[in-house]
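Q: Here's a chain of 640 amino acids. Please give me its 3D structure as tokens.
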Amino acid sequence: MTDEPRYAVHADLNVMIETRDGTGLATDIYRPADPDTHEPVDEPRPVILDRTPYDKTGGRTRHGEWYASRGYVIAIQDVRGRFDSEGEFYIHVNEAEDGADTVEWLAAQDYCDGQVATLGTSYGAWVQSALATQDPEGLGAMFVNMGAANGREKTFRHNGAFEQRWLSWAFTLGAGFAHESLADPDVQQAFADVDFREVLKDGPVERGETALATLPGYEEWAFDIMESGSASDDLWQNPGVNFERHYDESADVPTVYSGGWYDSYTGATCDNFVGLADRKESDHYLLMGPWTHLARLPGGHDHSEQLLFPPLTWEHPTAGDLAFGENATRKYRETRKRFFDHYLRGEDSWDHPRVEYFLMGTGDGHRTDGGNLFHGGEWRSADEWPPAGTEMTRFYAHGDGSLSTGAPTATDSATTYAFDPDDPVPTIGGNTSSYLTYEPRDEPVGAYPLGDRNIIDFAGRGGYDQRTHEGTFGASEPYGPLADRDDVQVFRTPPLDDPVEIAGPIRVRVYGATDGPDTDFTAKLIDEYPASEDYPDGYALNLSDAICRGRYRGYRDEPDLLEAGDVYEFYMEPYDTANRFEAGHRIRLDVSSSNWPRFDVNHNTGGPLYGGDERRVAENTVFHEADNPTHIELPVQPTE
């Protein structure tokens, strides 16, 4: 079927779909209609479901019209407690049942041919995986773009630490459009006036002490995520939060898991594919580009409207400070439609390999006219992830700061540094999203609505030279390379004689010790460019990073504080990536104890998981010796 529109569109707005507990979920239903009469066509069609917390109206109207004009029925729904839907919003916990009830209701309608597909990005990806855990009748296919897998391990929290983007989301995209904010301009104004950067600088936040106190439900779920770390807590067992736990009973339908190497859900996207592709009979696909979670508009801001749509990042050949070339882009809607045309309509429209990924790093590193470093890249295909032939190769840290495939032989080698929670290592891009604040304005929300305001992305997203400057959030003078900080331990290979390509998961084991009951260790993989005419100081390009909170080391279910001076293995899984380290570059591993504001900062006291007034400077030690060999394990690809 052609991608050109063939139908007029008939819309039924604010249809209330009742869930099992009687809550009405507001749904706009767009149907193909006769171009002459504008009456909806009688022939039942597949239905596409898009569930969102970001308002089903506005730009999503165009989204609905696009699919309906091409022959699909599309239902766009506000999730529980958001915009026109009834009920109370508690992030993600009701989405499994609500989504399944919606699928089954739509499948039973006369205009549906019995097949309901789902699509969506970010929160819209979470809700797909959530409803799939219920295996609802009628679910026919899913296109899950940039979503979670296990909220405790790699999303809400990350190996014990808290991803502070969720607190930012609570203050901005969440609270700004809560039912109470939409109903009361004074409440919305209170959040419009919050500069979340100041909230972080003044943090940690306390219950009842911020604007969130005006929205008790939002404050409750935000603090639940921040303060709850044990796997036994109900939040982490919920099928709307932890899909990994429900893989076996989840729906067996054709599914695409798509994402980007600089997305905030990269690890989870790959985890879902690996966990389900061979477990299920239906076709499953992995599609990974060099993309961030959202595309940036010129001028250094993310516009709010762009945050409320499926991201245009697929169609932008940049990520942070990097340029990849026009070949890196994909058409988002058209790709999804080809998938649905094949699996719902039986058309010969989908010929993608099981795994398709963009190998970054084939560029020459020049500075483009747009001021980006040209990192380049090319598309690759495979039948599995990681690709067949991948050799997981250990690169060991040594006492002289080198990184090599040779294991250390020293019997007594370690480096100690002071980790001050009042001076954390600043985040410079990476796998981030939602580190946002509304641009401060003098106009009230009545004159300049919150939905029209620019949003400042203050932590960056994507690849950047790992050096601070005046605009780096959380940095102070003297500005310069993070590698120059005393609390960042750098291990690098010699300049490579030949290129090294990696594609797959990354594993880091830091053998470390501290002088207190708890601390964090962090790891960051860097492609270190040599000096060039465009970059005379070289360029330290971040590829992936991770953190491990001591009390939850080894992804343990319950906290276990540390004994001062004892050596522990701090295991980390920086998100999967695909990159070529060109000849002359260095492979670099940075080890430290903070990455802020990406993660909350450990107070090193063993006190509350989040917050508390007491904090102390920790003396942390990284070992690089025969019995305690700190290393990074990389998915090296075979040479041709």
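Q: Can you summarize the key feature?
A: The first helix runs from residue 59 to 68.
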